[in-house]
Amino acid sequence: MLRIAVPNKGSLSGPASAILHEAGYRQRKESKELVTVDPDNEVEFFYLRPKDIAIYVSSGKLDIGVTGEDLLIDSGAQAEVILPLGFARSTFRFASRPGAVKDIADLAGRTIATSYEGIVAKYLDERGVEASVVHLDGAVETAIELGVADAIADVVETGTSLRNAGLEVFGEPIMRSEACVIRAKGNDGDDPKVQQFLRRLQGVLVARTYVMMDYDCRAEHLEKAVALTPGLESPTVSPLHNEGWVAVRAMVPAKGAQRIMDDLYDLGARAILTTAIHACRL
Ligand SMILES: Nc1ncnc2c1ncn2[C@@H]1O[C@H](COP(=O)(O)OP(=O)(O)OP(=O)(O)O)[C@@H](O)[C@H]1O
Ligand SMILES: O=P(O)(O)OC[C@H]1O[C@H](OP(=O)(O)OP(=O)(O)O)[C@H](O)[C@@H]1O
Ligand SMILES: [Mg+2]
């Protein structure tokens, strides 16, 4: 049975369970459940604190886990990313009162509050900056106002939390992060059960980012139309009953689909349809 770690709380928890559910796996029914068995798929899910997942996975007790890249790096655990999942995208940045700290070198002798002291200590060490790092479990933005720290290092997505606290980022982003599937380092990567799990998740990611597009166009416009909708391998082209017309079918990125439909229409294509893809194996 494949043993998989899933975040039990916080920003990662909902989207992680949602993608697993979409991939056909049974997920827990209520948030207090710590373990769920999916006998049909021979998988056991362990709902763990997001910060602990890399530790469990690196120990080899669990085969794989869903976590954030920043949490993986922060833990220092011997585990690696095997599939980025495209949600919980964030940057990790230093911030302070406007102008109070101008760059990283300015942090020497100061105090930095963070929930990710593993990332911060490594970053400062690599740059030879000696500063004190104070661990806080969350809401670190408030640490400056309350005089606990001169600067903070925290997850930034929209920047709203920083703005609300009257803080500004300084220096380059320390790292970028998104949710990912991880496994212990040194694994050969050939486990067929893990490969099947990854294919299922990849199928969901593709289904989320692509739509199926169908349209009819005159045969003489086909090459231009196909350039707009090249598909993954190559589009399917079938003859229509009306001579000189063809039907075309191709997957296109969902994001640009409306623009492609406009361009196809301008080329003379008609009956242009897009439909959602629910699941796929590439
Ligand atoms: N606002 C956000 N936008 C995008 N990703 C975020 C956001 N906040 C946290 N994350 C990501 O979620 C992961 C942190 O999850 P975790 O559950 O530990 O924190 P949390 O969502 O802040 O919950 P908690 O309330 O327990 O602190 C990290 O990978 C982080 O980059
Ligand atoms: O840039 P933003 O869009 O504002 O998002 C970033 C904020 O979201 C997270 O906080 P969360 O709400 O999880 O609270 P926490 O600080 O207690 O973890 C993170 O720690 C930041 O504070
Ligand atoms: Mg948080």
UniProtKB/TrEMBL annotation:
Gene3D superfamilies reported in the protein's UniProt record: 3.30.70.120, Periplasmic binding protein-like II
This protein's name: ATP phosphoribosyltransferase
InterPro entries assigned to the protein according to its UniProt record, in alphabetical order: ATP-PRT_HisG_long, ATP_PRibTrfase_cat, ATP_PRibTrfase_HisG, HisG_C, N-reg_PII-like_a/b, N-reg_PII/ATP_PRibTrfase_C
Reactions this protein catalyses: 1-(5-phospho-beta-D-ribosyl)-ATP + diphosphate = 5-phospho-alpha-D-ribose 1-diphosphate + ATP
Domain of life per record: Bacteria
Activity control, per UniProt: Feedback inhibited by histidine.
Organism annotation: Streptomyces luteolus
SUPFAM superfamilies registered for this protein in UniProt: GlnB-like, Periplasmic binding protein-like II
UniProt cofactor(s): Mg(2+)
Class of this enzyme: transferase
Residue ranges annotated for the ATP phosphoribosyltransferase catalytic domain, each copy included: 49-203
GO terms of molecular function: ATP phosphoribosyltransferase activity
Localisation per UniProt entry: Cytoplasm
Similarity remark: Belongs to the ATP phosphoribosyltransferase family. Long subfamily.
Described purpose of this protein according to its UniProt entry: Catalyzes the condensation of ATP and 5-phosphoribose 1-diphosphate to form N'-(5'-phosphoribosyl)-ATP (PR-ATP). Has a crucial role in the pathway because the rate of histidine biosynthesis seems to be controlled primarily by regulation of HisG enzymatic activity.
